[in-house]
Amino acid sequence: MRGTVGVRKETKDNTQRRAPLSPANVRRLVSDHGLKVVVEPWKNRVFPDATYADAGASISHDLSGCNVILGVKEIYAPHLTPGSAYCFFSHTVKGQDYNMPMLREILDRRVTLFDYELVRDDRGKRLVFFGPFAGYAGMIDTLWALGKRLAWEGIPNPFSSVRYATGYDRLERARAALRVIGDEISSKGLPGRLVPFITGFTGYGHVSKSAQELYDLLPSEPVAPCDLASFIARGKFSDRKVYKCEFHKPDLYADTEGGSFNPEKFASRPDLFRGRFADYLPHLTVVVNGIYWEPRFPRLISRDDVRRLFSGAGEGSAGKGGTAPRLRVIGDITCDIGGSVEVTVRETNADNPVFVYDPRTGRVTDGWKGRGPVVMAVDKLPTELPHEASESFGNALERFVPGLARVDFSGPAASLDLPDEFRRALIAHAGELTPEFSYLHDNLLRGGSASKDSRDS
Prior knowledge:
It contains 14 helices and 18 strands. By secondary structure, the protein is of the alpha/beta class. The chain has two domains: 4-119 and 388-446, NAD(P)-binding Rossmann-like Domain (Rossmann fold); 132-384, Rossmann fold (3-Layer(aba) Sandwich).
């Protein structure tokens, strides 16, 4: 029914708590735009059903009468209603093999699919995303993992007081906790075994910037990648500071044909470049990875890199009985399985957020105990800060909802009266892939690739 919007419950994972619209968004859509909003009841959602009802929504298990249905994560059969229009993060545009069966169902059921990741303005800037909250939660979880690891190693440290992100009911509580830790570092200093404490950040976007925003609540001082080795050699560092090294593409990749880094050449021929992050890895205590990655790009951290780094370490924590590498934790916010960080061999979630990768055997052990780096690879980080994440996302999405609610989806894709930003995000309609995404036919036939999309979802 045109003029009716559905908000579905999330069925992919029981740790999911986000919503595409907040009660405040619903109130405005109902009162200012005359829309009918139907919310599917769901006990895990950060906003109780009653708050949506108070905002003017109908609470119902039946969304079949909605003109468009809004969700967050992937929707698998039997939860797809034939002929309906859906908006969610589909993780299909790179031909991801694990979601090709879902895409086949979407086509078979003649479902209309919009992907939030593709909602962009004329300049290609993304407009509806969770990215900053992936960075915030990822930074909190990385520091939490660091505190656990160091405590297991027998190193008293201020990070032991960091809670897991879900332990903070609001982001501001986490900020306040990090400020306290920052004051402790400034006044009491860090244990000598951690000095200099250096965290490497990769990525240019919302994910990396928001992670750095929280890190900078500590007494942080920048160090350029090109100065890292000499910085260590000079020894002019402080135990009352943490250091931040931000890596950009020229720092991460070297042209195998010689010459300086050329971004156009890298974009067109990444096979002519090698990764050089391993050169910096021995100097880092923590890595926070937020880069966009595809299989055609060189890896950031390979299994061989980690094996070489830990080759002098003996049994135990970070190398008792041998030379202990500085590296304790890899916070892989990007979470490409076997991708930019090859030792991210599986994704994790809030119920079991970290594992230790053993560089000798390639095996992983849940938790933070054991030989090798701790890897944090939580797949749905923004849901760990669900209140602010949902409010921010809903505020970005809200302006497009009235237009979507009134679209007549009975016609062919080319004739749909869509907002331009959502026309770019239309992947499938009436049993067919749209022309821009027709390349996915090959992936449907052969099963897809293994890379995930960005951590905005």
